[in-house]
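Shipment paperwork, digital attachment
Item: protein structure file
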Amino acid sequence: MADSTTRVDFWFDPSCPWAWMTSRWVDEVAEHRDLDVSWHIMSLAILNENNDVSESYRAFFPRALRYAQLVTAAKELHGDAVIKPLYDALGTRIHLGDRKDVDAVMAEALAEAGLPAELIEHAPADPAEHPFAFEKQLRESHFSGIDLVGQDVGTPVVSVNGVAFFGPVISPAPKGEQALVLWDGVVAAASYDGFFELKRSRTRDPIFS
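Attachment content:
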């Protein structure tokens, strides 16, 4: 890897629309900058398992956890290289397609990513009947990201040359020069050791187009 290459680690929950938006931005930046991006799974269900959240939000976790389990199983059985293609295939259906039919989404995504259909067995609808075989690995991946930024944030977690932060939360994902300007600004701000938070209330939903 050349000295000019920027090392990026990106932790995502496949079901989070905001992580999806940020990932599209990173993809755009990677078309114009020399980035070496590694993709890692994290889980909103694990992040919030001991938190007081609304019932409607908690009802979302079983579905979200299945997607995280699927990506984890794919990674453990087929290697790191399958993470991004599977994430892209899942996210296209979950976010752009607004699909809620979890089994069909997973089956189609596995096929698109060139992965065996049997992997869906590692993301069981009834975890009591079929315990997840890679729980330890999922939690290790999750905490390897969240421990860099603290428990009071969410997904995505991004690390740039070892400097980690949550977000940015963006909508829509910028393109071209605007994407690069945002990238340079975010990385510059995060690189200052005393920088912790810059925030304003969201006034729009994710814009996927």
